[in-house]
Design goal:
With 263 residues, this protein is an alpha/beta fold. It has a single domain, classed as Rossmann fold, CATH 3.40.50. The chain has 10 helices and 7 strands. Strands 3-2-1-4-5-6-7 form a 7-stranded parallel β-sheet, with helices on both faces. β1, α1 and β2 form a beta-alpha-beta unit. α1 packs parallel to α2.
Length: 263
């Protein structure tokens, strides 16, 4: 029997892609996923699919994580209606691939508001309850981009660097208080993320064969929920590259050359 049975798992950005896969997978394990995202029509589609497949009704709430007032209001409602959130998955986020010099300020601010401040706001909303209960698990979706920054993703990579830094510090703060913190660092995943991020289509065309399937990433995350780990890095060979980069950055940047410029 899965350790997720009867647990409540709140997932941000659950209206599609990895978030929707993850919601379905935890429901199949007997957990109740709480779906949050900005698009109600898509949330309904995910909710109906989960109900049909598992007979579990996954409640949904409309949430824009970049709006801190909305985060406080929505999480307050969720906690009043469900009492406990056993696992929080900070999945909401987006990227836009463009050179920094060409990036409109609204794009820079938007990515930080969602990917970093939104993630922190959601964590802040549930963490006191987890600490009071003496148990909980926060899963932050970061990226291999948080370990190796490449051209045209300088801002997006900066947000994921921030997620990793925040997660690593928070993990140490709550290490002896019953709360686990896991970061997920995937390479490119075959989702609609690239509809906005890669509007030219060049990046997807160049790396399509190397893309991770969301079902594979979701499976790894579910296993980490059942048995918490510090972080998950996917795929393994990309993690080897990022590890080597920490030791010899100049050499990796030189060898990376053309492959770093596929956007």
């Amino acid at each position: 029997m899965s350790t997720l049975r009867n647990k409540v798992v709140l997932i941000t950005g659950a209206s599609g892609g990895l978030g929707a896969h993850l919601a379905m997978d935890v429901a199949k394990k007997g957990a109740t996923p709480i779906l949050t995202a900005r698009r109600e029509d898509q949330l309904k589609v995910v909710q109906e699919a989960i109900l049909k497949a598992t007979n579990i009704k996954a409640p949904y709430y409309i949430l824009d994580v970049s709006n801190t007032d909305s985060v406080e209001e929505v999480f307050s409602t969720i906690l009043s209606e469900h009492q406990n959130i056993h696992i929080l998955v900070n999945n909401a986020g987006y990227g836009i691939f463009e050179e920094f010099v060409d990036s409109p300020w609204k794009n820079i601010e938007g990515m930080f508001s969602t990917n970093v401040l939104g993630l922190m706001a959601c964590t802040r909303a549930v963490l006191p309850h987890m600490l009071q209960r003496g148990s909980g698990h926060i899963v932050n979706i970061a990226s291999q981009a948080g370990k190796i920054s490449t051209p045209k993703s300088s801002v997006y990579a900066a947000t994921k660097h921030a997620v990793l830094g925040f997660s690593n510090g928070l993990r140490l703060e709550v290490a002896h208080k019953g709360v686990d913190v896991t970061t997920i660092n995937p390479g490119p995943i075959a989702t609609n993320f690239f509809t906005l991020a890669d509007q030219s289509g060049n990046y997807v065309k160049n790396v399509q064969k190397l893309m991770l399937q969301p079902s594979h990433v979701s499976d790894k995350i579910v296993k980490a929920m059942e048995r918490p780990v510090r972080e998950i890095n996917l795929p393994w060979w990309m993690n080897v590259g990022s590890t080597m980069y920490q030791v010899m950055p100049k050499l990796i940047e030189t060898l990376g050359g053309k492959s770093f410029r596929q956007k």
